[in-house]
Amino acid sequence: MGYSDQRFNVNLSILFTELPLLERPAAAAKAGFGAVELWWPWVDAPTPERSELDALKKAIEDAGVQLVGLNFYAGQLPGPDRGALSIPGEESEKFRANLAVAADFAQSLGCKALNALYGNRVDGVDPAVQDELALENLVLAAREADRVGAILLIEALNAPESPKCPLVSAPKAIEVVDKVNAATGLGNAKFLMDLYHLSMNGEDLPSVIEQYAAKTAHVQIADNPGRGAPGTGSLPLEGLLDQLKKAGYEGWVGLEYKAADAAASFEWLPREARAAR
Fold it and tell me: What are the strands, taking DSSP E only, across the chain?
């Protein structure tokens, strides 16, 4: 058990950011990883030029890594935004314009998981109106994901760092997962369990795992405090991942932590445990 028993992938939107985007897949491969995930890389472009999509696809293929997770368009990330799909007007329209583009890109690389970030509350807009729009957009996203044989991930963030986001607890995210599945009948909406965000909320992580492992299709980790590599904070990540495994979780564990030098930050993970399995 322990780290050697997990399937890890590197989030290239938070690690190796000292390199240009197109060089990061090869850097992950050089560090021994066989799988990567990404936030939507074009923060200003929900529908980038075909040449940009093709260049990223080629970089991933040339590196020999598997893309295992991709975010739909989510606004400025990292930055002030926490998603676009619940924000009336231009942001919602950008999210919808991105759906087929992101799904097709994922399909072209065999990626089976698409993450839809909920977005912040907007001053002066009734939260019920935002939630109605969110459900509409998540239903569209679930159908797009299903079209390409993928699941739709819904993630809980944390209240201290995302005070305007309403999805800042595991139960709240699960509620949205259940609503989307009830609305579509597809059953492909699943929980993205980010142990860093949940710990920042002060949630009881063993209890969250016990209750929601069956609805979880992707896990992300960083230590707390600091959002650094495992071992830089006080989260018992190895034990929590063991518990997930025992609860039947067999999916990917995304490394979504901050490190000034990504390559040097992987010492906690033996090289033989890094390859995709």
Answer: 7-11, 35-38, 66-71, 113-115, 151-155, 189-194, 216-221, 252-255
Structure tokens at 226: 């600091």
Q: Are strands 151-155 and 216-221 parallel, antiparallel or unpaired?
A: unpaired
pLDDT of amino acid 61: 98
User: Among residues 155, 161, 238, 267, which one is catalytic?
Assistant: 155
At 9, the amino acid letter reads N
Note if the pTM is more than 0.85.
Answer: yes
Burial class (CB in 10 A: 0-12, 13-18, 19+), 38: buried
155 annotated active-site: yes
pLDDT at 276 (0 to 100): 79
Identify each DSSP E strand in 72-185 by its residue range: 113-115, 151-155
Could you give the count of Cα atoms lying within 13 Å of 3 in the half-sphere of its Cβ?
Answer: 20
The C-alpha angle with vertex 230 and arms to 175 and 236, in degrees rounded to 5, equals: 65
Tell me how many degrees the CA angle 29-32-38 measures, rounded to the nearest 5.
50
Catalytic residue (choose from 91, 144, 203, 256): 256
Phi, psi of 219 (to 5 degrees): -125, 140
Instruction: State which residues of the chain have pLDDT below 50.
Output: none
